[in-house]
Design goal:
Length: 689
């Protein structure tokens, strides 16, 4: 047993006071013989003997009362297995892991979880000694160097972050700190709501921690039921965006609580203007999709924001996205035969909402052309195979290509071009004997974005052209069939190549191959194909706060890139031309829209949102977590906000305190002393009388 306040033990000297008083109060009885009282002599001796015994017992009780009272204030404690008498003098390395993800912004009767945690850290810090090493790890800032801290002011300004990182990464950093520390005592204080969905890394199935012989204090928040809704995604049902045309946008809303609430409000904003709003209700732990219709009123970048009313957590009540409405499209046509593009040019001239800036070159001029100046490249023929490396680089960097066979193309050369672009090889060129044996369309994928909004009243009616010359090939696994011919050959197919897209027509835009150029479908199909190739929407790209972003800077004119952040502040980054066409941008801790410029030219736009996993409040099994830690000879102390955590920490450090027991014993002894003292007084009074 040890005493946490050993200086109080000097008070044990007070135990000598009853002894001194005892001897001072001793009375020496004078012997006076009375013959008439001789018969009482034996009786008096018996009573005096009893009184002396009681006086000695009172002396002992008074000494014990003082001993137990002083000892209780000295805080007697049973030693723990960590040699507390040594550990109390040894230096300590303590790591505070503070979960500042946005789920810790929930407010209860004691304030937000994060503020409660900060206050607890402040109180715990007062129990450390000079020379102890204290470290702070914020779960949202794992990339920053972890340094020791001494003042609570370094924690006071910590705020809730939109960034979500796997919690186990913080534990691994704590492991590195403790394993390199030479201090005797090692402690880890964890302040978190211990969400299961964000605890482990994606590629982990267990904790894989290597911390040994440390004490873990788990401060667990979020025991109460939380009512929260979150917008987890936004879908664009259109992929071709045109001025004054209607678009349909779907917002996905989810709740992970078991409390139902009806008539919540969700709103849609385009460029900060509210364009639609609807009421909704979501059943417990359910998901709902809300469709909005709106008319596009501006060209250029359109920022999209879906929001719901405030609830337990405000960070997941918004979802950011964007799309482009082109006012003009720069088009490069590469053709080896003069006049091959005349029908394409005629089709593009019919566009009412989009202006096309067209430049046509011969394949021999391709090497001297800066492809980054063009939104789409139209390739007719096979001669470009000699420069296919440049074309492939353009597509992989996010460029788009509309590909046709040409009138005088060579099949082997065309296959070389296809091979370099990772497109399927052409087996043969089918030439039908005359127009009477021409082939037609067999099936059309009307669900493809090219056909969205193309037909009135959803009546899908396309008059098939007569096709008497076409390429015979099979669609690869990375391709998508849009229009198939009667023999199963693709007439129009789509391929994703790197970050770009290719639309591949199996016939030439010439009357020597088919009647396609003079059919009603030709002009709208060419226009919408190019519009589709210029869409900026990548349905697979989901960017979360804190993610590293790949930014396409292939069109930059200088090494300096200007970044406009969601809060409208600017950041300048140097990215020289030798560093490639993609910039790795890391400062994405704020949700919203990021715009990247070279001088005044907009290079790329990225929308960043919170990770929806952070809105899932299901907890990990603390027993399983504790078991993993204890397997490595660690001790684990679980703490909830209502606990007397200072006492728990003290007990864990030094053992079990006994001061309450000592105080109770002192009180019981005092009661016994009062009883015996009263009895002794009666006996003494009997003798004196």
């Amino acid at each position: 047993m040890i005493f946490l306040n050993p200086t109080i033990l000097f008070g044990l000297l007070a135990a000598s006071i009853p002894i001194v008083l005892h001897f001072l109060n001793l009375r020496k009885i004078k012997k006076i013989e009375f013959s008439t009282l001789a018969f009482l002599k034996e009786l008096q001796k018996s009573k005096i003997r009893k009184i002396k015994i009681k006086q000695l017992l009172l002396l002992l009780l008074r000494i014990l009362i003082i001993l137990f009272l002083v000892a209780s204030f000295a805080r007697p404690t049973l030693e723990s297995t960590t040699l507390a008498s040594v550990g109390s003098k040894a230096k300590t390395t303590a790591v505070f892991i503070l979960d500042n993800s946005f789920s810790m912004s929930v407010i209860d009767a004691n304030g937000s979880y994060l503020n409660q945690a900060k206050e607890q850290i402040k109180n715990i810090m007062s129990n450390f000694q000079s020379g102890d090493d204290l470290f702070l790890i914020l779960t949202s800032e794992l990339s920053k160097e972890v340094n020791t801290f001494k003042s609570f002011k370094e924690i006071e300004n910590v705020d809730v972050s939109s960034v979500t990182k796997p919690f186990v990464k913080s534990l691994k950093i704590a492991s590195q700190i403790l394993n390199t520390s030479n201090n005797f005592n090692k402690e880890v204080f964890i302040f978190s709501d211990f969400q299961k969905s964000t605890f482990l890394e994606k590629d982990s199935t267990n904790f894989n921690l290597k911390i040994k012989n440390a004490k873990f204090y788990l401060f667990n928040f979020g025991e109460n039921q939380i009512q929260n809704y979150s917008i987890t995604n936004t879908f664009f049902n259109n992929q071709i965006f045109e001025l004054n045309k209607e678009i349909t946008i779907t917002s996905e809303i989810k709740t992970t609580s078991s409390i139902n609430e009806v008539d919540k409000l969700v709103s849609l904003f385009l460029n900060n203007n509210r364009v639609a709003q609807k009421n909704f209700s979501v059943l417990n732990n359910g998901t709902i999709q809300i469709n909005f219709q709106a008319t596009i009123e501006n060209t250029g970048l359109v920022e999209v924001l879906s929001t719901i009313e405030d609830d337990a957590i405000e960070h997941d009540n918004s979802f950011y996205s964007h799309f482009f409405v082109p006012s003009d499209i720069s088009l490069l046509i590469v053709s080896s035969v003069k006049g091959e593009s005349k029908f394409i040019r005629a089709a593009l001239s019919t566009s009412k909402n989009t202006k096309f800036k067209i430049k046509e070159i011969h394949p021999n001029d391709f090497m001297n052309t800066n492809l980054s100046d063009y939104n789409t490249v139209v390739v007719i023929g096979s001669e470009l195979y000699e420069y296919s490396e440049n074309l492939n680089s353009y597509i992989n960097s996010g460029g788009s290509v509309l590909l046709f066979p040409g009138d005088g193309f060579i099949l082997s050369d065309f296959n070389k071009l296809l091979l370099s672009l990772n497109l399927p090889q052409t087996k043969s060129v089918v030439k039908l004997s005359d127009a009477t044996s021409a082939i037609e369309f067999e099936s059309i994928d009307y669900k493809h974005p090219i056909f969205a909004g193309l037909f009135a009243d959803n009546k899908h009616e396309i008059e098939s052209p007569q096709i008497y010359k076409y390429l015979k090939f099979n669609i690869s696994s990375s391709g998508r069939s849009i229009i198939l011919l009667q023999d199963g050959s693709p007439f129009l197919s789509e391929y994703i190549v790197g970050k770009g897209k290719v639309l591949f027509f199996g016939t030439s835009p010439l009357l020597t191959w088919s009647t396609f150029p003079v059919k009603n479908i030709f002009a709208p199909l060419i226009n919408r194909s190019i519009s589709y190739l210029n869409t900026n929407i990548n349905s697979t790209e989901r960017l979360f706060a804190g993610d590293e972003i790949d930014v396409n800077v292939s069109k930059r004119k200088s090494a300096q890139i200007k970044v406009i952040k969601p809060d409208k502040t600017a950041e300048f980054i140097n990215h020289d031309f030798e560093s490639g066409n993609y910039l790795k941008y890391k400062n994405s801790s704020t949700v919203g829209t990021y715009m990247f410029y070279s001088s005044s030219e907009l290079l790329d736009v990225k929308s960043v949102n919170v990770n929806p996993l952070e809105s899932n409040f299901e907890k990990i099994s603390q027993d399983k977590f504790a078991d993993q830690l204890e397997m490595l000879n660690n001790s684990v102390i679980k703490i909830i906000p209502s606990d007397d955590y200072i006492s728990k920490i003290t007990t864990a450090r030094y053992g079990s305190e006994l001061w309450k027991l000592f105080l109770i014993i002192a009180l019981l002894l005092a009661l016994l002393e009062m009883y015996i003292a009263r009895s002794a007084k009666k006996d003494l009074a009997t003798i004196e009388n």
